[in-house]
């Protein structure tokens, strides 16, 4: 990858306020990831692309990895919603389809790179676990628990165990590239682990396909 390929045009002139700079920086990481692997994206290049100073970035994030973690967290929150207001089966099925679509694209590359770097940094591993897994895991477990109670899911065992069986298998495929992970495979895993009633898809509307572009 050449320096010219990595060089980015600043998004705008001037130095926005810190709160505006945060969004600029998160967007810049995603945009730079289209041109280079995460290991080649420095704070200098992020600052240049975002139109802010490195000092501004370091006021918000103590390290580039901390910035990458926040980028991943925002990406997942935006593209992989977990709807606690929806019926349990619809909530989990829809989440898995969104996850499959996003993780086959740029979001998957970002997740693999960030998680790989976090494994070498215990402090950032805790941040990722507490800020992503802590909240999203608890939400998914609650939804699965409601589904086990109301009969949407006919599997035995407790909600936490079923959650880890389902999402553990999915993350294994994402991180190590073992087997396919698409809409059909995601739903097949859900059926195997949670055992919804036969014919459940007749009452569920799959999410629309994402528009072409970054995923």
Q: Short description, anyone?
A:
It is built from ten helices and no strands. By secondary structure, it is an all-alpha fold. The relative contact order is 0.11.
CATH class of the largest domain: Mainly Alpha
Classify the oligomer: single chain
CATH topology term of the largest domain: Tetracycline Repressor, domain 2
In DSSP terms (H or I, runs of 4 or more residues), the helix count works out at 10
- What is the overall silhouette? elongated
InterPro entries: Homeodomain-like_sf (IPR009057), HTH-type_TetR-like_transc_reg (IPR050109), HTH_TetR (IPR001647), Tet_transcr_reg_TetR-rel_C_sf (IPR036271), TetR_C (IPR011075)
Pfam families: TetR_C_11 (PF16859), TetR_N (PF00440)
Keywords: DNA-binding, Transcription, Transcription regulation
Domain HTH tetR-type: 19-79
Structure description:
- Keywords: DNA-binding, Transcription, Transcription regulation.
- Residues 1-20 are annotated as: Disordered.
- This is TetR/AcrR family transcriptional regulator.
- One of its GO terms (molecular function) is DNA-binding transcription factor activity.
- Residues 42-61 bind DNA.
- The protein is mostly helical.
- The protein folds into 2 domains: 7-60, Homeodomain-like (Arc Repressor Mutant, subunit A), CATH 1.10.10.60; 67-198, Tetracycline Repressor, domain 2 (Orthogonal Bundle).
- 65% of the residues lie in helices and 0% in strands.
- The protein has helices at 3-6, 18-33, 43-50, 54-60, 64-79, 88-103, 106-118, 122-150, 159-176, 183-194.
- Helix 6 (88-103) runs antiparallel to helix 10 (183-194) and helix 8 (122-150) packs across helix 9 (159-176).
- Residues 1-16 and 211-215 have low confidence and may be disordered.
